[in-house]
TrEMBL record:
Gene name in the database record: cmk
Protein name (Swiss-Prot/TrEMBL): Cytidylate kinase
NCBIfam families: cmk
Origin organism lineage: Bacteria, Pseudomonadati, Pseudomonadota, Gammaproteobacteria, Chromatiales
InterPro entries in the record: Cytidylate_kin, Cytidylate_kinase_dom, P-loop_NTPase
Positions contributing to ATP binding: G9, P10, S11, G12, S13, G14, K15, G16, T17
């Protein structure tokens, strides 16, 4: 079996950063599943398809995307990094992620990322739906206020405008959608290690995760 480490959690909890750090440390491949939903939303928008239309599932199934080793994302051979991580794209991704047909269309594409020597998969249902047999499952959380502050800092550092109060509201609304959707809601897997990063440094969270991964016999 290909060893898979899953990291689930709400938006802004730091799971993307931790997933990259763990993948680099272990020499594993990396799956940013949220990027696939964001890319699907952008592809639908590019084709002027309403996000509630049935055609969105077909867009997901035929998605023409690729990721560079440095993480840059390409849609139809055009780099979309400048819009991929915006709050608007995230909100669109959250909406289509609640659709069973879109999730089904992307399921096998996500599982195909599990190749030797191993995979670190970052998302919201990696440990519960996509890789339920993964030997090491992690769930990373943090308060909405802290997550909004982290996102605000990230946007400002990238030269983008941001409003902290609005970010808090957007994150809370996204949490509500993700946690209460009928299909694959955002919940920790029963055998996942839950880590609250509200008052922890990245280094402290990484150390706790690696301790758990080793205890599970993954490395």
């Amino acid at each position: 079996m290909i060893p898979v480490i899953t990291i689930d959690g709400p938006s802004g909890s730091g799971k993307g950063t931790l997933a990259r750090r763990l993948a680099e440390q272990l020499g594993f491949h990396l799956l940013d599943s949220g990027a696939l939903y964001r890319l699907t939303a952008l592809a639908a928008q590019k084709r002027n398809i309403d996000l509630e239309a049935p055609e969105v599932a077909a867009v997901a199934q035929s998605l023409n995307v690729r990721f560079d080793p440095d993480g840059a994302a390409y849609l139809d051979d055009a780099c979309v990094d400048s819009v991929l991580r915006t709050e608007q794209t995230g909100a669109m991704a959250s909406k289509i992620a609640a659709r069973p047909d879109v999730r089904a269309a992307l399921l096998e594409r996500q599982r195909a990322f599990a190749t030797a020597p191993g995979l670190v998969a970052d998302g919201r249902d990696m440990g519960t739906v996509v890789f339920p047999d993964a030997p090491a499952k992690l769930f990373l959380d943090a308060s909405a206020q802290i997550r909004a502050e982290r996102r605000y800092k990230q946007l400002i550092e990238n030269g983008l405008s941001a409003n902290l109060a609005a970010l808090v509201e957007e994150i809370q609304a996204r949490d509500d959608r993700d946690r209460n959707r009928a299909v694959a809601p955002l919940v920790p897997a029963e055998d996942a290690l839950v880590v609250d990063s509200t008052h922890l440094s990245i280094e402290a969270v990484e150390a706790r995760m690696m301790e758990f991964i080793r205890a599970q016999g993954v490395v």
